[in-house]
Amino acid sequence: MGSWLQTCMISNLPIDWDEKVKVIFLEKNIDNIDSGCYPTCYYKPIHVPLDGIYNDYGYDISIEKNYNYDIILNYFKEILGDKIIINDKEIENYDLSIILKGIERKELKLLENYNYVLIKENIWNIISNIPLINYYWKKSISDICLEKFNNWKEDAKAWKECQENYEKTKIYGKIPYIRNFMNPDGESYPWFLIYSKMIFENVDINNIEDLFKKWRDFVIVNTYMEETKNCWRLTSGKGSQTYAWELHKMLAEKIIDICNIGLSNDEDEDDE
After folding, report:
1. How many C-beta atoms lie closer than 10 Å to residue 104's C-beta?
2. Mean pLDDT highest for which of 48-62, 84-98, 151-165, 232-246?
3. Is the C-alpha dihedral spanning 204, 207, 209, 213 positive or negative?
4. 172: helix, strand or coil
5. Residue 23, strand partner residues
6. Who contacts 24 (Cβ-Cβ below 8 Å, separation ≥6)?
């Protein structure tokens, strides 16, 4: 079977053994309606990330089992049923580790449009703490998420409207992401304010606040990806990455110089 490193989807940095990661299951965007303009143009996350530790063998990832784990496992069980067949063997009581293996080895035909990516936890934490601003609302993304979450909890009608809006526009993916969207009244608002039924539906009240934080962090990371022209995608580079660190460092040092030139040019244009 062999031992190899994985690759962080956002940074492209190597993921080493025993490293903390975010595990995100993706569904292929068959419609591809965004034409490369948005983070979900090729793949769309099915839920907020899981916490895990990479164990050095591709799909061998220790995933923390909690309510979030159960939500995603139940999601796949609705597709696969109570039993699955891998290599002509019937398996009952399967878990996400079996699903990861099945996806990695293309042994689950019903999941042929699904895959997963890993993101280094330290990279995820850095990005999710960036104070991103939504310029339409003149507020931070984090504050908007919290404000809307609290409003929806207190206003049953607003919650119902968000669920209905999601049903009308769910072709864009199971998780809302930032995008200017025109509602029937002609008012433009960030796309991520439309709630996904899958995020908060059927979640125990004791887990709502924690799930909100995971969702908020996801929205911030997804917004960062959109602003930096990145998208949810599969990564290559499995295997030895001994030389990768040096190459990444060389490029990063050059990128800093290029960014400084770009910022300087923008300032010059603003002064004119």
Report:
1. 16
2. 84-98
3. negative
4. helix
5. 50, 118
6. 9, 45, 49, 50, 116, 117, 118, 119, 232
DSSP letter for each residue of 190-211: EGGGSPPHHHHTT--GGGHHHH
Rg (CA), the chain: 20
Query: How far is CA 69 from each of CA 19, 51, 74, 149, 213, rounded to the nearest angstrom?
Result: 19, 9, 9, 22, 16
DSSP H or E stretch at residue 255? helix 244-271
The CA distance from 174 to 198, in Å, is: 7
Query: Considering only CA atoms, which of 221, 40, 210, 215 is closest in space to residue 122?
Result: 221
3-class DSSP assignment, residue 105: coil
Query: Pairing state of beta strands 188-190 and 180-182?
Result: antiparallel
238-271 residue pLDDT tens: 666 677 888 889 999 999 999 999 988 866 665 5
* Residues 203-241: b if buried by 16+ CB within 10 A, e if exposed: beeeeeeebbebbbbbbbbbbbbbeeeebbeeeebeeeb
Which tokens go with 197? 């039924």
Structure tokens at 20: 């903390």
Q: Which two tokens stand for residue 215?
A: 């969702």
- How do residues 99-139 score in pLDDT, each as one tens digit? 998 998 889 989 999 999 999 999 999 999 998 887 666 77
Q: Take residue 128 and report the two structure tokens written for it.
A: 């999710």
How far apart CA 69 and CA 47 sit, in angstroms, is 10
Which tokens is 91 given?
């398996």
Candidates 106, 122, 95, 90; CA nearest to 19 is 122
